[in-house]
Amino acid sequence: MSGGGPGAGTVAVHCGRWGTSLLDALRRGLPDADLVASGTPEAASADVLVTLADDGPAVAGALTPSVRWVHILGAGADGFPFGVLGDRVLTCSRGAGAAAIAEFVLATMLAFEKDLPGSWVTEPPDAWNTAQLGGLEGRSLGLVGLGAIGTQVARRALAFDMEVAALRRSSAPSPMAEVTVVPDLAALLGRSDHVVIAAPATEATVHLLDDAALAHVRPRTHLVNVARGSLVDQDALLRALDDGRVARASLDVVEPEPLPAGHPLYSHPGVFLSPHISWSSPRTGRRTVSLFAENLDRYRNGTDLHGIVDTGAGY
């Protein structure tokens, strides 16, 4: 699918919660582009809008009639107001944070197997040179989703000599010969010591991991969610943690974000909760900007854009 054509002009930037820091970062990465803040008089004639997708009403307000192409500075399109998009082209920075997120996932799996931070000591322990730690070698990993993030997680897991299986939405074969594609979620959960959720948030994936699904997990499973909180029924997860089906849940995403004070996920001993930071690394920001820069060149030249969002599927 092609963009607008030669001579693409002003790019409006909807900064949202990032404020002017987002606009400043884009200007540093794209010194030759005409970047202006959305909502200003200069943005009224912009034909490109750059935005995040987490504030639908505000994004809808930034979609002026002149805009022909919208780019989301993120991998997910959930929260975007598809109903007001019309015939505009929508793209996203798919894959920008995949490497950083995959590293975070491996860190959570190693922390689970090596009992971190529980293995650290601050005074003489009852026993020295004695432990019963696990390892990743020979363990099985189940990936819910085999897109950019899932693929990056698989590559790293294979380097640890793990057995890797995946569930994917399409019927396409695995892009990696060492990764087995399984037919359904129950089959994936039943064979996996570590389950990593890396699928997009759509209407079809709301509470994908519910009581019925969690009934199929192996005893003492480690569940990692780096996708969106909506994919997990958190009440069902708490029940699975309490009865031991899930030994630990490493959650970088929850619903809602942030969780209200006093929510049981904050204090549950089987939950390791981080505030949606798995994407964070020095390279992620640079990659996000470079992906948009490449698309901007394509748009100006009238060639096909990368990261097209299927608005029907929601990602």
Question: Which keywords apply here?
Answer:
single chain; 315 residues; alpha/beta; Rossmann fold; 2 domains; seven-stranded parallel β-sheet; five-stranded parallel β-sheet; 28% helix; elongated
Instruction: From the 3D structure, determine the CATH topology of the largest domain.
Output: Rossmann fold
SSE string, helices as H and strands as E: EHEEHEEHEHEEHEHEHEHEH
- Under CATH at level 1, the class of the largest domain stands as Alpha Beta
Report the structural category. Answer: alpha/beta
Count of discrete structural domains: 2
- The main sheet orders its strands as 8-7-6-9-10-11-12
Give the full name of the CATH homologous superfamily of the largest domain.
Answer: NAD(P)-binding Rossmann-like Domain
Explain what you see.
With 315 residues, this protein is an alpha/beta fold. The protein has two domains: 11-96 and 281-301, Rossmann fold (3-Layer(aba) Sandwich), CATH 3.40.50; 98-273, Rossmann fold. 28% of the residues lie in helices and 16% in strands. It contains nine helices and twelve strands. The chain has a seven-stranded parallel β-sheet. It has a five-stranded parallel β-sheet with strand order 2-1-3-4-5, with helices on one face. Helix 3 (98-113) packs across helix 4 (148-159).
